[in-house]
Amino acid sequence: MWNQAYHVISCTHERKPVFADFRSARLLVRILMHEQDLASSETMAFVVMPDHVHWLMSLAKECDLSARVNAVKSASARAINRRLRRSGRIWQRGYFDRAMRNDDNLSTVAEYITLNPVRAGIVTRRGDYPHWDSIWV
Question: What are the Cα distances from residue 108, in Å, to 60, 64, 100, 130?
């Protein structure tokens, strides 16, 4: 059922630290999990950083990457704006993606993704950061 795996990175509008707000970050996490519940993608790892998200996922064969990423960005923008009682852009236009080749070690990519808060100096241990998950760790 699963097709291509991708490492997707999407940044907030003007790199504002939208997800430094705990509840906004958790809204995005919930939306990523909901996307998986729709059976359109399988999330293998993610981390929500203050101004961007890394998402390692595999698409269902019939699904389009841009449609799935845009659905997550749109749903999260609506939810966050509603919670903050505001309007406006949350995300930059577009996103970066890297299709994983068969020889790519997905668990190594997941390790890289989930250690992002440590490399950024936000925490000293991955387990101290609340907005990540991985099927390998």
Answer: 22, 25, 12, 20
